[in-house]
């Protein structure tokens, strides 16, 4: 493993999935210039949903953040597919996070932090990003979390 970002992942006890299949008729990513737009990824592993919503009373924040981290791992898989190497990412520009939750639930941003924290751990200051985190009534495959991203690639 020669990619420093994948080495960091391994040191954190994490790995990328072997695949990240699309659920519908869309591209997993689209590049324009140095910007890479990544389609939303739910908390699934190799196409199999793993964590389901909506958030329930007494939920475990650490487990919910791991679901958001799983979304980020799927995004990283697609970033590597698009860029050839995770080290070809110059900056994480923006994340959009969605949490399946009942009306009035206000902790969605803390759950999406699971994705944000992974990008910051991997890329340092280049991993810090603008972000939106909202709660919604449902997500594809009844997933708990979905995260999309815009990243800047090196030239």
Automatic annotation (TrEMBL):
Superkingdom assignment: Bacteria
Pfam families in the cross-refs: YjgF_endoribonc
Gene3D superfamilies linked to this entry: RutC-like
Residue ranges of domain Endoribonuclease L-PSP/chorismate mutase-like in the record: 6-152
Official protein name in the record: Enamine deaminase RidA, house cleaning of reactive enamine intermediates, YjgF/YER057c/UK114 family
CDD domains (alphabetical): YjgF_YER057c_UK114_like_1
Coiled-coil intervals, chain numbering: none
Species this chain originates from: Fulvimarina manganoxydans
């Amino acid at each position: 493993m020669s990619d420093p970002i994948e080495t960091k992942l391994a040191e954190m006890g994490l790995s990328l999935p072997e695949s990240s299949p699309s659920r519908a008729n869309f591209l997993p990513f689209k590049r324009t210039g140095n910007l890479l737009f990544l389609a939303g990824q739910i908390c699934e592993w190799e196409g199999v949903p793993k964590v389901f919503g909506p958030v329930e009373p007494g939920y475990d924040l650490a487990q919910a953040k791991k679901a958001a981290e799983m979304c980020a791992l799927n995004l990283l898989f697609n970033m590597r597919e698009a860029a050839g190497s995770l080290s070809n990412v110059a900056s994480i520009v923006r994340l959009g996070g969605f949490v399946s939750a009942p009306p009035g639930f206000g902790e969605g941003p803390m759950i999406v932090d699971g994705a944000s924290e992974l990008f910051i751990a991997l890329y340092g200051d280049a991993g810090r990003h603008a972000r939106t985190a909202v709660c919604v009534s449902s997500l594809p495959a009844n997933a708990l979390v979905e995260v999309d991203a815009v990243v800047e690639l090196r030239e």
